[in-house]
Specification:
single chain, 8 helices, alpha/beta, binds adenosine monophosphate, 214 residues, 5-stranded parallel β-sheet, 8 strands
Length: 214
């Protein structure tokens, strides 16, 4: 089954696209950010380890992330496509994933990199709203929910702004992203697996671009 990686800065629309594609293809959408937020919510050991890094927009240590990803893959009872979202973030994570997939005679199929200018991202993220219940994304200006504070998809009154979506924290996350992205780009380009997706476009257009690549 195909393993795709969605690479890109926070706020480039990776999560929205990954969720929709996963739904359509009955694929697993594996977002390490979502898994970590769940862990914090549950106050598990992983959550306690990750919280301080996440609040500051820093990266959670590779060992914690790899354990979490392998644990989640191990939960699967049947084989299906996987879309990795927000993972890997470092070459060590990419190597860990390759090694793990390689043991099962599997490999990453393609890495799709969402590209977008930093200023656009800060503007986008500042208005981002997320449903605590189902994870759907909205935006105060670009994709407002029909009723304020209420999720259009699941109906829960549970829309909130992530703590690390504050502009200063976003700038710090972007700095880290740029530092980390180049080696990852090089890593997958060397394997002939890197494809760029121009992400400064309406959601539908990006979706079509992705479809053409998958
Ligand atoms: P995200 O939802 O992908 O933007 O992730 C939110 C935060 O979770 C990041 O700013 C990091 O602190 C942490 N995080 C998520 N995925 C990873 C990863 N693969 N490696 C390290 N830290 C991660």
């Amino acid at each position: 089954m195909a393993k795709w990686i969605f690479l890109g800065p926070p706020g480039a629309g990776k999560g929205t696209q990954a969720r929709r594609l996963a739904r359509e293809r009955s694929a697993l959408h594996l977002s390490t950010g979502d898994l970590l937020r769940d862990a914090i919510e549950a106050d598990s050991e992983v959550g306690q380890q990750a919280k301080a890094y996440m609040d500051e927009g820093g990266l959670v240590p590779d060992g914690v992330i790899l354990d979490l990803v392998f644990w989640r893959l191990g939960q699967e009872t049947e084989s299906r496509d996987v879309i990795f979202d927000g993972f890997p973030r470092t070459v060590a994570q990419a190597e860990g994933l390759d090694e793990r997939l390689g043991q099962a005679g599997d490999a990453v199929k393609k890495t799709l990199e969402f590209t977008l200018a930093d200023e656009v991202i800060v503007r986008r993220i500042a208005g981002r709203l997320i449903c605590k219940k189902c994870g759907a994304n909205f935006h105060r200006d670009f994709l407002p929910p029909k009723r304020e504070g209420v999720c259009d998809q699941c109906g829960a009154e549970a829309l909130y702004q992530r703590k690390d979506d504050h502009p200063d924290v976003v700038r710090h996350r972007l700095e880290i992203y740029h530092q980390q992205a180049q080696p990852l780009r090089d890593y997958y380009a060397a394997q002939g697996k890197l494809v760029e997706i121009a992400a400064d476009a309406p959601v539908e257009t990006i979706y079509e671009r992705l479809h053409a690549e998958l």
